[in-house]
Amino acid sequence: VEVAELGENDQYGWDHDSGLRVAGRIVLNMWRTIRAEVKLQSYSFENCVASILKIRVPHVKRPALHGLFKRHETRWRCLSHYVLCNRLCLHMIEQLDFIRRTSELARTFGIDFFSVISRGSQYRVESMMVRLAHSQNYIALSPNNEQVARQPAMEALPLVMEPVSGMYEDPVCVLDFQSLYPSMIIAYNLCFSTCIGRPKHLFGEDGEDGEDGEDGGGPPAAAAAAAAARPDSTAEAAAKRNQTKKNTRLGCRESFSLDSSLAANNIDPVDPNDLIVTPNGIGFVPPSHRRGVLPRLLHEILQTRIMIKSAMRNAPADAKSLCRSLNAKQFALKLIANVTYGYTAAGFSGRMPMAELADAIVQSGRETLEDTIRFIKTHPDWREFADVIYGDTDSIFVRLKGRTLEEAHRIGQDIAKAVTARNPDPVLLKLEKVYHPCFLLSKKRYVGAMYERPDQARFQFDAKGIETVRRDSCPAVSKIVEQSLRILFTSADISAVKAYVERQWKRIISGRVSVMDFIFAKEVRLGTYAGETSNASSIPPAALVATKAMAKDPRREPRFGERVSYVVVHGEPGARLIDMVVEPETLVESGGTLRLHAAYYITKQINPALERFMRLIGVDVQIWYSRIPKAMRLLPHKRPLSSLGVTSTTATNPKSTIDQFYLSRHCICCDALTRVNEPLCCACQADRQLVALALPLRLNRIERQRVHLGRICGACGGVGGRGEVVCESLDCAVYFERRKVEGELMRVVSTLSVVDE
Questions:
Q1: Alpha-carbon gap, residue 401 to 186, rounded angstroms
Q2: Number of C-beta neighbours around residue 634 at 10 A
Q3: Cα–Cα distances in Å, from 332 out to 99, 254, 325?
């Protein structure tokens, strides 16, 4: 009843919390906690334990546990299973260091433990900012929804260049600005308390009598942020920076008098030559006149983080507990520094958004990045061979034509030092890595052989935004694409890539693959799909599989955002994709009446992912695929059981799939062609002694494999009280291998009975 009321009254709690409330206790939902901590294809208990603790535990279904609990001699096995699950949950929390890290976050942000888990980043920023503002005699504003809605819309966008798509065999240096937005705030004193609006409005350039036009953002809007503030009399006088260099980069301004405007806002007069004007036309007073709250906050955060990381390096080797605590603190400071800009730009649900300040931060960062690109292109030492091929918010990709890997690292360091010297402190450009070679596909989608040091012997495979790091496809796509790219990066031989891809295609067509690599896992949010109740075919495949499972057992309703697994199997001719998706258990238990849809996985999943890279070097993957033989018969262990006189436990219609109409006509002993409905060819029928020797040997081999796999399952506790294997974990490759061997054993036994007759 409590959970049901929670779902009706608190939708956020129903979607994100544990669903339980205990007075005086913090109840953690381990599934949602681990889901936020690590990225996995499946968040089943067994897969989480295997990924975090590196051990395998059995997955025992509820009916099997019920059977163990009913028998007095095996009841202890059921109880020990649940005790093991609870112990592993505690071990996973310890391995992730969740309690310690969350506690350090709470101490650093100044909020309670549960607020770190349940509240967003604005709550954290505001907690630290308000405490610092109070110590500096400032009062934070609290605008209502109507005042926030009257603010001008934000117009600035970060620089995200359209890359020159292709494969680059020359070294590509990836240069990254360290904490770009916090550095902009500190370097140019960007804050609520230092903003004075648009200086050009004082001359009436955008409206009569110096008032704002429709675009807004003038002195009334900007002065509201400074109206409640007093001049900071305790701020230390900072040395004046080179304002001429800053003015050239941050925009031009004319001489004017601000005395009356500043005096109205209780701000001491400032020399117009010292005024900081950002590229979007917003003026800020210099730090020597008034140091803002945000710059002071971020400066202390970054300096403290540097001190903590230095303490971690100098800590004793046996002080693991201290290092974990320090690492949690520096991680908390890193988080708060990176989300401070988002606090100023949260115009929809923010507590104190300010469009002028947010645009000033973004435009300053964009102008810094554009100035860096112009500097690299026009520098006399690099303009002959350096070419900027991509830029994204705070990083740039520089191609160095005809240079070696060692020269690329040296030139990248020189570029980073020169650009850092051009910008005010603490703006810092660092050489992050060098790709040699790499692929650039589109915005935020690239992959390359990464070298972080010039003396690095072997490259590291580094990818972003492509199938190898995404979870919206099956593992087979990720593995084939990554291995193909590794072969190409290592050997630069397209024929080697072609040979590898063709081998994988033939394995998929012939069925010599593991079902585990072809399982899709998609998030399901039942109740949010259009036409969910009226038209089942309009919902995603994962939601349809979950709906069918709920129809059989209402207790199998997936949690909000849970990843539901499914596979695509062969169906009737002309069947839709939505009609060919089933649970992995259905495929495994079909007894051969269902098989993976090889053509779908190859043509709709693997080939499109490969084509995105191969087309950039002039290779058509579809031509490769069209030239391999497609008429691949079913293997002996993939024949439907109904062809051998065995009835499947899941198939009610003996001719429900295309496999039932086109059975294999190969001999079960020597693999030669046979006549219709005859398991043996003419030669084997004539030589009965060969058949009597070959089939028992095959039976013996399969039985030994089954015993070996049973011992593996018994090692992790997957064997029941009577010696049978009760584990049915879809996240373990041994499970699929064991079920395949069991199916082969059943077919060989059936074949022996047919031959005996």
A1: 36
A2: 18
A3: 14, 42, 11
pLDDT digits (tens, 9 = 90+) for 320-356: 888 888 888 888 888 888 888 888 888 777 788 888 9
Taking CA atoms, 42 is separated from 156, 330, 687, 728, 753, in Å, by 39, 30, 51, 15, 41
- Give 318-357 as a 3 state SS string: CCHHHHHHHHHHHHHHHHHHHCHHHHHHCCCCCCCCCHHH
Angle of the 607-614 helix axis to the 475-491 helix axis, nearest 10: 30
The DSSP secondary structure of 240-305, one letter per residue, reads: P--HHHHHHHH--------HHHHHHTT-----GGG-EE-TTS-EE--TTT---HHHHHHHHHHHHH
Residue 265 burial by Cβ neighbours in a 10 Å radius (0-12, 13-18, 19+): middle
Over residues 157-204, the pLDDT tens digits come to: 898 998 889 999 999 999 999 889 999 999 999 999 888 888 776 555
Work out the widest C-alpha separation in the chain, in whole angstroms.
Answer: 113
> Can you tell me whether residue 684 is helix, strand or coil?
helix
CA distances in angstroms from 349 to 84, 92, 243, 346, listed in the order given: 43, 34, 36, 6
Alpha-carbon Rg for the chain in angstroms: 33
CB atoms within 10 A of CB 301: 22
Assess contact for 487 and 441: CB atoms under 8 A. no
Which whole number is the average pLDDT over 71-94?
90
Determine the Cα–Cα distance for residues 703 and 707; give it in Å rounded to an integer: 6
pLDDT digits (tens, 9 = 90+) for 573-609: 888 888 899 999 899 888 778 889 999 999 999 999 9
Cα 219–Cα 221–Cα 222 angle in degrees, nearest 5 = 60
In the block, which residue shows the tokens 């100044």?
110
> How long, in residues, is the chain?
757
Number of H helices, E strands in the chain: 29, 13
Buried b / exposed e along 594-627 (16+ C-beta atoms within 10 A): bbbbbebbbeebbbebbebbbeeeeeebeebbee
Among candidate residues 168, 727, 204, the one with its CA nearest the CA of residue 448:
168
List the structure tokens of 635.
Answer: 């293997």
Question: Closest Cα partner for 172 from 392, 373, 386?
Answer: 386
Task: Tell me the per-residue pLDDT of 730-752, one tens digit each, with 9 for 90 and over.
Answer: 888 888 888 888 888 887 887 77
* C-alpha angle 533-536-538 in degrees, rounded to nearest 5: 105
CA distance 549 to 562: 14
How far is 331 from 98, CA to CA, in rounded Å?
Answer: 13
pTM: 0.81
pLDDT band at 250 (very low <50, low <70, confident <90, very high): very low
Q: For residues 99 and 324, give the distance between their C-alpha atoms in angstroms, rounded to a whole number.
A: 11
447, 481 contact by CB (below 8 A): no
- From the list 420, 430, 373, 423, the residue with the least C-alpha distance to 398 is 373
Six-digit token string for 112 = 């309670």
